[in-house]
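Same chain as my last thread, 229 residues:
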Amino acid sequence: MFRIRNFWAFILLNVFLVFAVVGNSVTASSIVADDNKKQILMQKINLENNIKGSVGALLNVSKDNDIFVLLGKERKGKSGEGTWCELGGSVKDGETLLQATIRETEEESGGIYKLKEHEIINYATIYYNEYKKDNGFIRKEMYVFLKVPNYYNSDEILKEVNKQKNINYKEKDEFKWVKLSDLIKCKNNPCIVHDINGDNHNILLRTFFYKALQKKEFQEQLKLLIIQP
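reply #2:
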């Protein structure tokens, strides 16, 4: 029975996608096939059709049977300055959600993490949310959860970020690998988390990221990362 449970946990980890449409539509959650996951990733943002999008990448590594995700603190003068969140940002007009994830991750990590399309399509899991705003725009939001093979410490990442000539890429001025189980338990903001070195930190999460963490479907997604075989 232990092997069977682990098998299904593995299946859920690689094909689980939450699709939630709010507002005047019916909210629904479902487990979908990999083909549908790819369709979501390949969606293009078209501003002329009143469609906007944002993406976030929760890169993670394992250490001592714990999982740690990379968070960055928004630089002074930037939107949400002083708060912590994943790597990510807005999707450009004509860009797919997949392309935006790759671009944003590379920009905000100083080029350290250059994700490949096949890595995200084949190995990542995603959380997807779509809703209509009061101004008539359709908002598409996607989080990508991906285990990365190479670990770089916070100082190494910040050093590469600060080397970039384009000031718009210097959005974060501090990084931490944070224990995933602490984020799942985060009921208040700010909240206490442990970093990969075992140190405690009281951090203020960016509002949209904190709200995502409070969603049951999002938490279930994170828990699947912990129980993977």
